[in-house]
Amino acid sequence: MVGGINVTESAKVAGDDYNTRSILLTEAVATLIAGLCGGVAQSTPYIGQPAYKRMGSRAGYTLMTGLFIGLGGILGYVSFFVELIPRAVLAPILIFVALDIVVQSFLACPRRHAPAVAFAFFPTIARLLSIKLGNPEFVPVENFQKLITASGKSLPELLVTIALGNGFILTAMLWGGFLAELIDRKLRTSAVYLFLLAGLTFFGVIHSASPDGVMYLPWMLDEFMRKIPYQFTVAYVAFAVMLLLLSFTKGSREPMPEHD
């Protein structure tokens, strides 16, 4: 759902205004049909529409891609091409699309919201780090376990990194939203975002303490892992309460300046 909303909004900024409800219904039906056929992954529109559009892609490109990948899944030649094409060939394409998405995220927002856009990248960076560090070929399993259970007064840095990265798409959206509202001096709306973040954190929807990113009831976790949901939730709630108190100050009610 989040992917469908993001891609539809991205296409809208590029000049193609699609009906979000229709897009979400299409991907939902596609996921259900795929599930009946044994599929294990949800369907969502592929990100990067503005980049492909500027390269001249139209509806035919989407149709041919769907047929090629669909038949490849049925006949099995997708895995052959994946093994055949070197990563060094694929990487520039992915980097190009990623850069276009990043650029659009800054240009499509008011200039004053640039800090919120930049802040929203941190959960993604944390997720990338946790994926790399969780690779047994990069960090042996026994060393990884030691890093996330290191004793001390503060939480282990790797465990915090993993927690920040789990649920990164939802976290990034909410972080960007709360900071954008804060920049606009809508302190109470910003506090609502933080209370929502606290609720999602408490049950592991985001910031899951488990390396697998699963949801849980926090009181069912072991004593060590339990620190993540409780400490993160308290931090969000404390921040939200502070903003609510600040919303009663005279400075918070001053009008925004005319310029960005």
Structural class: mainly alpha
Taking the alpha carbons of the first and last residues, their distance comes to 32 Å
> Ranges with pLDDT <50 over ≥5 residues?
none
Q: Quickly count the helices.
A: 13
Percentage of residues in helical conformation: 55-70%
What do the pLDDT scores average to?
87
Write structural notes for this entry.
- The chain has 260 residues and is an all-alpha fold.
- It has two domains: 1-108, no CATH class; 110-260, no CATH class.
- It is 65% helix and 0% strand.
- The chain has helices spanning 2-13, 20-36, 49-54, 59-75, 77-84, 87-107, 114-119, 122-133, 141-148, 157-165, 168-183, 187-202, 227-246.
- Helix 1 packs across helix 2.
- The radius of gyration is 21 Å and the shape is globular.
- The model has no long low-confidence stretch (mean pLDDT 87).
What characteristics describe this protein?
260 residues; mainly alpha; 13 helices; 0% strand
What are the SSEs and their pairings?
Layout lengths: L1 H12 L6 H17 L12 H6 L4 H17 L1 H8 L2 H21 L6 H6 L2 H12 L7 H8 L8 H9 L2 H16 L3 H16 L24 H20 L14
Helix pairs in contact: 1-2, 8-10, 8-11, 11-12, 12-13
Please provide a brief summary of the model.
The chain has helices spanning 2-13, 20-36, 49-54, 59-75, 77-84, 87-107, 114-119, 122-133, 141-148, 157-165, 168-183, 187-202, 227-246.
